[in-house]
Each structure stands twice: as C-alpha cells, then as structure tokens.
C-alpha cells in the first residue's frame, strides 16, 4: 500500500510491512484479536454460526492447504459463486491464501453466461454454495472447470469443510503487481469484460476508502449478498474486517431484523436496495 494515515494506523496495530496482502494481514490480525467475532451467519452449512477473528485466521490457513492439495497454484484463477457475505469472505481469502486469484461470478445470471465467464478467465476450480450450487454446476459443465467445492453437502462437489482436515499453511506471498481479484464489469456496450485488480490497486482502494468510511472495531456491519460490483464489495468487506469490525451476512429484506438482532451500526448494500426509513445504520454502497 501507499503511505498515509491508513498505512501508519495499520503498522501501529500489526507491525507488518505494507507489502503484505490483505489476506496475510487478516491472518496476522486474527491471532492478535482472538475470540472477538469476525463473521456471523452465512449459507446453510454455517447457519447462525459465529467465527471469531482467530477462527477466521485458522480456517483460511487450513483451507489454503486444502486448496493447494486440490491443485491450486500461484495466480490460478478460481471462480467464486456464493450467496452471502460470509461464504464470500471465506472463499475469496482462502483462494488468495493458497496463492490463487478469486474471480467472482454473479449467481443471478443464466448458467451459459456464467460458463462463458469461467471459460474466459480460465478457471479450473469453482467454489459455490446453495441455493446457487445447481446453476454453478451447470456452468462448470459448460466451461473448463474440473472441480467444484461447495459449502453445502451438494452431490458432485467437494465439501469446503473437507479442505480443513489436513494441516494448514501460511498465506501465500504476492507482489504488488500480482493479481488480487479478477472481477468482470459491463462495458459501454453492455458486454462483461475481465477487469483484473492487482494487490497494489486493492491497497490503494483500501487507502481511499479508509479516509472516507469510518469503520472501527466496535462496528457491526450488515452485508448484503455479493452483487454486480465485486471490486467495491470486496474492498468494503476487507476494510471492515481489517479494522476489527464484525460482519453479519444478511439479505436485503432482512436488514431491519438483522440490525435489531445483532446491534448493527453499518450496512454494505448495493445500488437500488430499498432501505427502510429510520433504520439506524450508516449505509455504504458498493456502487462500482
């Protein structure tokens, strides 16, 4: 990351050099933060489950080892098609920890469009969860994908939890110019095109965002499912976790109930979300 207040603040907390990836930082911070909650809720395999910052660190390192056993190598692109913020965080950072590059695949599209994206980016592995698993499997069949990992018990897939059973490894080291994310964006003609993001660019995004979005370790951040603005969405989630906040996965219609149940203070939403009037949350939009 570049210099400035964000880097100085992070160095005061972690003592880690600015060249560390976000995933390396999360793993290191997780050890220091211990049992403070990091992730709440998620897909059917993790209903209502709370992962502490320490548990998140451990899961990412174990999942990294599992993904490497399944063939993920440095800068391999891995498709991510998941229905909630918790499974998104776990999938994205597990892939990065293994040395791969996550490529978010919108689950709302037809399987043939998803397959075209997976083929275009060269993904050979896909991570998914119900209720998107059926569409993801159909997309995988029409692409170069040869392995599908699911957070749920879905026939024809490898269970994410099975990645965690045989040791762990420290997150992979990456250079500033290496890819950190491989999202797709719609161009002026409406066609989706790969818009890769390097670790340097991701760091600059975080630096800019930290200056205008006040999120701290007392915040409980409600997060809608992944949408069409993967770069913004990823950076917002990363910012919340790096600053020690708790991220709670929720659906748009569930924001009021989740805010009351978890003491929400902020929310990550997509453009067009109908936010009920009077909801006492700071809204941050993943606007692309």
List keywords for this structure.
37% helix; 288 residues; 9 helices; alpha/beta; Rossmann fold
List the topology elements:
Layout: H1 5-14, H2 22-33, E1 37-40, E2 50-52, H3 53-69, E3 77-81, H4 85-97, E4 101-104, H5 111-121, E5 125-128, H6 133-141, E6 147-150, E7 158-159, E8 179-181, E9 184-186, E10 192-194, E11 197-198, H7 199-212, E12 220-223, H8 230-242, E13 246-249, H9 255-262, E14 266-269, E15 282-285
Parallel strand pairs: 1-13, 3-4, 3-5, 5-6, 6-7, 12-13, 12-14, 14-15
Antiparallel strand pairs: 1-2, 8-11, 9-10
Task: Describe what you observe in this structure.
- The chain contains nine helices and 15 strands.
- Strand 3, helix 4 and strand 4 (101-104) form a beta-alpha-beta unit.
- Strands 2-1-13-12-14-15 form a six-stranded mixed beta sheet, sandwiched between helices. Strands 4-3-5-6-7 form a five-stranded parallel beta sheet, sandwiched between helices. It has a two-stranded antiparallel ribbon with strand order 8-11.
- It has helices at 5-14, 22-33, 53-69, 85-97, 111-121, 133-141, 199-212, 230-242, 255-262, and strands at residues 37-40, 50-52, 77-81, 101-104, 125-128, 147-150, 158-159, 179-181, 184-186, 192-194, 197-198, 220-223, 246-249, 266-269, 282-285.
- The chain has a single domain (5-285), classed as Rossmann fold (3-Layer(aba) Sandwich), CATH 3.40.50.
- The longest helix is centred in the first third of the chain and has 17 residues, at 53-69.
- The chain is of the alpha/beta class and 288 residues long.
